[in-house]
Amino acid sequence: MKKVTYDILMGILPVMIGVYLGIYFNNQNENAKQQELSDKILESLYQENKNNIMKLEASLDYFIQLRDSSDHLLRLKKPYKQFQFWKGLNPPDLSSTAFNVAQVTNTLPGFSIGLVQHLSSTYSSIEDLQSQAHTYFSSVTNQIGSPNFEDRYLAVLFNYAYDMVSSEEQLLEIALELDKQIKEIN
Fold first, then answer.
1. Helix ranges, the chain (H)
2. Which of 35, 43, 66, 162 has the greatest CB tally within 10 Å of its CB?
3. b/e map of 29-51 (b: 16 or more CB within 10 Å)?
4. Distance of alpha carbon 116 from its chain centroid, rounded?
5. Cα distance from N-terminal residue to C-terminal residue, the chain
6. Is 11 exposed, middle or buried (0-12, 13-18, 19+ CB in 10 A)?
7. Angle at which helices 97-104 and 2-76 cross, to 10°
């Protein structure tokens, strides 16, 4: 009976060890792949944030100039004529592709809670800025042709530029903090 039990154990034990080792190495391989994906996405988030910061800085310069110029004309009570530096009412074209990829690939849970919160805050602020710009743009285009619109246009332009400067400064501050946080991780 002991021999039969011994033979059975000797037959099962190598199979069990093989299965265990197979599962162990498979898990290690999956963890390595997940870490590689996390590293790539973190690098993409870093680059995307860097590009967004550059676009924000350029846009902020433009809207400061637009705010100050329209304010100057309002104070002088001069009529509006298109500024030489005019680029329109468009907000900066900020990207959120890397963040969307991180969400779709379910990579965010692998990051620290602080980083995920900061990412969410940054990308939520980007959406808010774009929504704000769209609302103003719609408001302005809906007023075109209305009585006395030309008299009010400079004030509307000033208010829009003022709000954009305020929002972009806040977003830039958040994005710069995110930049520092990602640098610390890398």
1. 2-76, 97-104, 113-143, 149-185
2. 66
3. eeeeeeeebbeebbeebbebbee
4. 11
5. 61
6. exposed
7. 150
Q: How many Å apart are CA 170 and CA 89, to the nearest integer?
A: 19
CA distance 64 to 136: 17
**Six-digit token pair at 129?**
């800025």
Q: How confident is the model at residue 2 (pLDDT cuts 50, 70, 90)?
A: confident
Contact 85, 24 (CB under 8 A): no
Query: Can you tell me the distance from the alpha carbon of 25 to that of 28, in angstroms, rounded to the nearest whole number?
Result: 5
Tell me the per-residue pLDDT of 159-181, one tens digit each, with 9 for 90 and over.
999 999 999 999 999 999 999 99
CA distance 48 to 46: 6
Provide the 10 A C-beta neighbour count for residue 66.
23
| Tokens 């009412």 found at | 89
pTM score: 0.82
Question: Per-residue pLDDT tens for 79-89?
Answer: 777 888 998 88
Tell me phi and psi for residue 71, to 5 degrees: -60, -40
CB 169 within 8 A of CB 61: no
Query: In angstroms, rounded to a whole number, what is the distance separating the alpha carbons of residues 107 and 101?
Result: 8
State mean pLDDT over 130-144.
Answer: 84
Q: Encoding tokens for residue 18?
A: 């093989």
